[in-house]
Design brief:
Order of helices and strands: HHHHEEEEHHHEHEEHEHEEEHEEEEEH
CATH architecture of the domain at 234-375 and 395-440: Alpha-Beta Complex
Strand order of the largest sheet: 6-7-8-11-12-16
CATH topology of the domain at 234-375 and 395-440: 2-enoyl-CoA Hydratase, Chain A, domain 1
Helix content: 25-40%
Distance between the termini: 51 Å
Number of strands: 16
Oligomer: single chain
Number of helices: 12
Structural class: alpha/beta
Length: 443
């Protein structure tokens, strides 16, 4: 889900003159896999998505594919950049917008072929993508950049050193020598780093264009981001009143509070007078910690200390408290239920853990993904970046976090059954409260 959110956050423009003439899909294992993915994305059909995940790409999720279809409308194939039997590069455009993207697909031969790596990158304005073939010099430069950034920024210096030693050993053993594809190299490095750290926020990424150095967004960039976030309703996909006066809010990311607070306020005010509240975070990949505490503020009757965040580089800890004031009415008395899945991650896990440790919500669903460390991006070489976790949360109640373990639900059920289970629990709670009220009044 994080990948989906990052793909959609930036508004991108069609780059005329960069399309390839060939728009038919080659009859190769890679080409047939691409066509199947295009068909799934165009239809948005859950059955097709389930078959694709089951037989072609088990790393994907059915909900993720359907959600991506809903965001993009599917894709139109603009051209084939290059084609080999097991490797295809292609260019597509969203059906819902003028956003174009480059795709890079590598498969393992079989009946059907299975996805080995799949990268899809939106093309920033004014950027000319290139076909990158790695050589020994570029691979060495990438590894040297990773070593440097891990030493400077990673939250645990001892683990950083072990990761450096691991990828240096792989390089010396020649384990990377045959890798010439950027996505494949980034995936392999990520796997090798995580094999040591088990840190799911840590990852290497590849883009077929040179990324600009990290910088504060310009007014134009911020305007484009705001427009895209508003277009996507700040990741809030459903707000409704379920039977029995149960409020239901589904949102798939905690977007920047300075842009998306009005959307959150509208959602919370809509359910303010319900008798119970369900937050659906089963597809929520996280986001802004400030938005986490802002939404949580509606659920407490006073300012409450919910989280601390330690920054290794600054050697300081920032406290997060719920707000003393919120626009609208609070829901401090209603029972709260949070729906989780194994894809609930990062900031969504913080929201879940904060409410659970404060005994403010019942968690229903699956154990969450287990990613607690906040991350920042660094360019390590041309075309390559690394996301390095630089801090860690410290819960004021447990003095721990959920890194590597995830948040355990109070009521463990399959993610697909979480909404029905939580609705049943909420209904029983509401009915019990009504019965107690009737009994105490003598009726």
């Amino acid at each position: 889900m994080v990948r989906r959110i990052l793909y959609r956050v930036v508004v991108l423009l069609l780059c005329p003159g960069l399309m390839m003439a060939q728009t038919s899909v080659p009859a190769t294992p890679a080409g047939r896999t691409l066509q199947t993915w295009l068909d799934v994305m165009s239809s948005g059909d859950r059955g097709q998505a389930e078959q694709y995940v089951k037989t072609i790409d088990p790393r994907e999720s059915v909900d993720g594919l359907v959600s991506f279809h809903d965001q993009t409308g599917g894709f139109v194939l603009l051209g084939i950049e290059s084609s080999e039997p097991l490797h295809i590069r292609f260019r597509v455009r969203e059906k819902n917008s003028s956003t174009t993207a480059l795709g890079n697909l590598v498969v393992k031969d079989g009946k059907p072929a299975m996805v080995e790596t799949f990268g899809l990158r939106a093309i920033p304005p004014g950027v000319t993508p290139v076909n990158v073939t790695l050589d020994a010099g570029m691979r060495a430069k990438v590894i040297a950049g990773i070593d440097e950034d891990l030493a400077k920024y990673y939250i645990d210096p001892a683990v950083a050193k072990k990761m450096q030693e691991a990828i240096d050993a792989h390089e010396k053993a020649g384990d990377y020598s045959s890798i010439t594809d950027g996505d494949a190299f980034a995936d392999r490095l990520t796997k090798d780093l995580r094999a040591v750290s088990h840190d799911l926020h840590l990852g290497v990424s590849f883009s077929p264009f040179k990324a600009p150095p990290p910088h504060e967004p310009s007014p134009e960039e911020r305007a484009r981001m705001r427009q895209q976030l508003e277009h996507d309703n700040c990741a809030f996909s459903k707000v409704e009143i379920l039977p029995g006066n149960i409020g239901y809010v589904k949102f798939d990311g905690f977007m920047p509070v300075d842009i998306c607070a009005p959307t959150a306020v509208a959602a919370m005010n809509f359910i303010a007078h319900t008798d119970a509240v369900i937050f659906d975070l089963r597809q929520n990949g996280g986001g802004d910690p400030a938005m986490v505490s802002f939404v949580a503020s509606y659920l407490f009757d006073r300012s409450t200390h919910v989280n601390d965040l330690y920054n290794r580089g600054a050697d300081e800890t920032h406290q997060y408290w719920t707000a003393a004031y919120v626009p609208g009415d609070r829901m401090a008395k209603q029972p709260v239920y949070v729906l989780t899945s194994k894809r609930t991650f990062s900031g969504a896990e913080e929201f879940t853990y904060d409410l659970q440790t404060q005994k403010r919500a019942t968690i229903v669903g699956e154990t969450t993904g287990g990613g607690a460390h906040p991350v920042s991006g660094h360019t390590v070489a041309d075309y390559f970046m690394i996301g390095v976790p630089w801090g860690k949360p410290v819960n004021p109640v447990t003095k721990k976090d959920w890194e590597g373990t995830g948040v355990e639900p109070d009521v463990k059920v399959a993610a697909d059954d979480a909404l029905a289970t939580a609705t049943k629990l909420a209904t029983e709670k509401i009915q019990a409260k009504a019965a107690d009220a009737a009994k105490s009044s003598g009726k």
